[in-house]
Request: fold
Amino acid sequence: MTITSLLDHPDLWRADRLYRAAAYRGTSIPSGFPILDRYLPGGGWPTGAVSELCLAQPGIGELQLLGSALAQITKNAGRWVLWLNPPFLPYAPGLTAAGIDAGRMLLVRTDNNTRADRGAPRQRQTHGRRSRQQESADDPHARALWAAERAARSGTCAMVLAWLDDTRLGQREVQRLQVAARQGNTLFCLFRPLTALRQASFASLRLRLAAGEQTDGRQRLAVDIVKRHGGWPVQGLHLELDQQRATRADVLAQLAFWREERARWLPNPGAAWPLPANTGSSPRITH
Amino acid sequence: MLWLGVHLPAFGLEVATGGMLPAREKPLPASDTDTPAAEEQAAGHASAQPMVLVRDQRVVACNDTARALGIAPGNSLATARSLTPDTLRHLQQNDERESRRLALLADVLYRFSAEVSLVPPGGIVLEVGRSLKLFGNVQALVDQVNTACAELGHQARTRPAATPLAALALARANVPALPQVRLDQLALPAKTVERLGNMGLTTLGQLLTLPRRELAQRFGRDFAAYLERLTGERPDPRPCIQPTRHFAETLHLLEPLRDKAAVQPCMHRLLTTLSHWLIGRQLGAEVLRWTFGTHAARSPETVTRVSMTVRFAQAQRETAAFAAISALKLSATELPEDVLDIRLEAQRLRAWKDQPTTLFPELEGGPARGSPATLVDQLDARLGDGACLRLTTLDRHAPEQAGQSAGLNTRQAAAPAPLGRRPLWLFPAPRPVRVDNLVLLEGPERIQGHWWDNPLSRDYFVAVHRGGTRCWVFVDQTGQWYLHGYFA
Reply:
């Protein structure tokens, strides 16, 4: 046994490099972004672990970041993805256009308080000893946590995307989710606000997401890896999310045509022009 | 022809107690708490209380404790009471409930044979000659029948024999061979048995050696015919039960239950019955309907019923699967008062298709990975119906109708891909937006239509918001701009 073979042992972590894909214990799903894959342990999203995605506001491209993984899971493997309390409706035509099978999505909402077929109306005198579980059954946060853990543990969903009440989400809850995700070998994506980064977490992977520079009309996402297994944090990754389909000239021509057309059809076209003026030197595409 | 005789020695008492003697955690009400027997029972020995089954003030059956105290069937209730001053519990025999229970039991045993007939009280015979190949051998079959009866709360003695009467006699007498059966253990008139006894005949072996014709002369034709049917010299056709097509069973409790934890074993008992019933018919149930009869402690007369419906995404038939979801549903249901009886009804029965969920379960992550139906059942049971949704696409103009969330049973329709770009997040309702925060990137895409209900005319654009989000915005005919989704 030579010193190099000892150094190559998967249990030995060397600060200057990540786990290589072959040596990484867990499995992973490639993210579809080569820059990101290079820094993720195992070369992709870690399955059987919690990945925290911390972002200031929804809509900056967080779903496109996961798009490739979603497409692989639903389209190629034919497995299920569970969305727990998403802030908006995942739009099926948009998902389909991104190559994701929207028929494999399971949407779970714990915030609606429609407890159907309760049988008898609620009565003042409750049943004997009211159990603790019964108490927590009415708490939406507890129900969401329960659903998240159950979904992660069951292993029937390859991927769980969860939005939880972050003001009440502590380290212990994340740890439980981490254990559940490991048992079910689930890729668990937990979406949290940026303030969550102030406290430590048991999640295997923590990312800070921010909208990238979009001056040329391309959508970019700035990703900082705050925590990863077997490596230091990485800052300043810029991912190109989509390609602008139309050139600037095309867009301007279309807009000019639209304005004419609209002026002909609408009674008061003046109200329709509060768009910012074209400053010429600015790369903004306006009219 | 091989017949299996099933004798239920304690059938009457088992029916009267519902087969369930719940171990109570807190002592009984003051009237019968101050004796050692009641305390013992409170500690979990449910059979410690002497119990007798009574019909017309006469003891018909008694349990072991009562027997140890000197009570025997035939005693009057007053005698029994005098033997056990405080603790005796007497239950009235209920013929209707007994016959219903025996029919249900036969229905469950239909699983083992197509020819099942009832021999009330407390006897069932099965023709198992044609079931032997399926179940292996007679002993395996006997064991399975006994296990099934035990799971349903009945102590059973099962014996095989060549004729139904012989099988029943062996089961009742609990002996391996016919000649050892005592005459008083046969279903003969007491007077006949007495006369035979006076002649010195006590066992069947002695009786069968005597010439049949002389016996017929002395004891009548019916007696001779009985012996011929017993030995198989005369055919003994029996009416077979018709398997029921619906399952509904009620468990009547002796003591009201105040705790959900105490209700669970009773539910488990009912579910086990249902599971046997379903397996015998190659069916699975999609909906279970529970009804709890409850009454308030202060007014025992008014019984209120609380229902609970448990739905399954796929038809199930195993007790464990039923019990897990039912327990979850129970935790989300309020049982306001003491529970007196529990009724289980199976609805939406489907032909059972036993198919593995995956071809190589070991390769795909082990047996823990079931179908998502199980997970959906759990979530629905705990979170309420309608918590689980799926995403649907429809061929509609209006974007909010083209992609929706809907119940799991909604049929998925194939929709053509839209021409323009579609966002990944869609708002439930468009939000008015100030346009000076937006920069348009692509568009327009005009979506116009729905003249028949709610006409819309919108020009959609892809825009970038000052905050960095990629938005899907539209301007309507009044010139108002709206935010409708995010390219997240």
